[in-house]
Amino acid sequence: MKGFGLLQTAWIGLCVLIASQSLSAQNETTRIYSLEEVLQVALQKNPELATSRLEVQKADAQVMEAWGYALPAVDFSGQYSRALKKPVFFLPDFDDPKSGKIVPIEIGSDHAMNFSVTARQTLFNATVIVGVGAARVYKSVADELLLAKEHETIAKARKAYYGALLAAEVREMMRSTLQNAEENLRNVELLRQQGLLSEYDELRASVGVENLRPTVIQAENNYALALDGLRATMGLAPSEPLEVSGKLLFDPIDPALFTDAMDRVLDRNNNLRAMRHQVDVNRAFVSAQRSNYFPVLAAFGNYQYQMAKNTLNFSTNDFIASSSVGLNLSVSLFGGLQTNARVEQAEIDVKKVEETVTGLETNLRTAVHSTILQLQQARKRIEAQGKTVEQAGRGYKIATTRFLSGSGTQLEVNDAQIALTQAQVNRFQAIFDYLVAGASFDQLLGVYPKNVRTNQE
Questions:
Q1: Whether the Cβ atoms of residue 163 and residue 230 lie closer than 8 Å to each other
Q2: Residue 195's domain spans which residues?
Q3: How many CA atoms lie within 13 A of 332 on its CB side?
Q4: For 443-455, how does the pLDDT look when each residue is reduced to its tens digit (9 = 90+)?
Q5: What does the alpha-carbon distance between residue 265 and residue 63 come to, in Å, rounded to a whole number?
Q6: Neighbours of 207 (CB within 10 A)
Q7: How confident is the model at residue 335 (pLDDT cuts 50, 70, 90)?
Q8: Which of 422, 431, 413 is nearest to 389 (CA)?
């Protein structure tokens, strides 16, 4: 029996060791992210941002393609043919002219080879010239859209991170509230046993505890949902475990930045800059369509190396070389008025984009003004709620002290607890609203936050 007890003890110890190692490994796989780390991962893995980077690469390739039309083109071709039945032409029978017969004469050879090299160089083509410039402007559009997507990704990641912090703060606050309520219930039960409180007071304290439990569960679920949103923004797998570090702290923006924000947004907003480049692109399309009125001049050269023989017994001496050079001029004299229609369509596209730019400028000014108002309002709420939380905390302590001394009621304690919880939630919400508005403000003005670095800086 003693040996069995030692074996059982060893087995239990081994199970505890394995369990502790498993728990430790699980904790190691849960990575804790700061705001800076969240932004770095989002800039690397966000799928929408990856798509924008591919668009930049595509624009680079289009610039190279446009240059390709201005560079010389060289083609090589080779051909071998075996005549299964040679073609013929007919001649009179010269041996017997009076017979009137027509004699078929075979032409060609059984085997023929032909190798040629052809070179072409465009000397003047207005479409090519315009196309190179348009491709460069389109590259600028892609670059600006990439920067806009970076700012959008950063803003979304910041908001998701702040949302996770808010959910974490509310979760901890509700846990603390539940602990206070449970402690209060224990005090009430002791006083009830001593006959100092009524059964009604005990029921009120018990109901207050039970009412808080679903709220704590809801806070846990909200935190899990906030982490899911953060994972999606960062481009992480839904099953990847993570936590966030930090606190939901008030980080004020210098009010001096609000003074010229209306003008700065028109100069720095990347979406607006991209749209202005799009106007230039459409104007280049107008020039490209008009270039169809102009002639196209190109130079060409051709070198041929050919052989024809009835047997495959050939050598290099059997090949004959030939070459030629020249110019090719083409002018469109009449194209069914298609060029006029295309020019008109391109000009309409320019006007449409210009109207879009005007509307976007107005919307950006409105968005900046609205965001500034949100920041100012949230800051006032933060300052007011700070005092409210302090007063509500003092009220809760007073109500608890009065209740324990017998001069207060359980209802006063419950009311004070609810007031303190509401004040804390309101302050967290005000800070969250301020930080979210600050992220939108930076995105509108094309400003990178101080805790992120990119290649564009």
A1: yes
A2: 33-71+125-295+338-445
A3: 15
A4: 999 888 876 655 4
A5: 29
A6: 13
A7: low
A8: 422
For residue 59, the tally of other CB atoms under 10 A from its CB is: 21
Do 367 and 284 lie in one domain? The reply is: yes
Do 262 and 318 fall within a single domain?
A: no
Q: Which residues contact 186 (CB under 8 A, 6 or more apart)?
A: none
Q: CA geometry: angle at 211 spanning 207 and 213, to 5°?
A: 120
pLDDT class for 27, splitting at 50, 70, 90? Answer: very low
CA-nearest of 287, 339, 347 to 129 is 287
The identity of residue 351, as a single letter, is: K
| Co-location of 84 and 232 in the same domain | no
Residue with tokens 């017994």: 313
Q: How far apart are CA 240 and CA 254, in angstroms?
A: 37
Stated length of the chain: 457
31 phi, psi to nearest 5 deg: -90, 140
Give the residue among 285, 296, 278 at the shortest CA–CA distance from 343.
Answer: 285
Same domain, 59 and 84: no
CB neighbours (10 Å) of residue 339? 16
Q: Which residues, other chains included, contact 337 with Cβ-Cβ below 8 Å and sequence gap of 6+?
A: none
For strand 102-106 and strand 111-124, is the pairing parallel, antiparallel, or unpaired?
A: unpaired
- 74 with 118: CB under 8 angstroms? yes
Rounded to whole angstroms, the Cα distance separating 100 from 119 reads 51
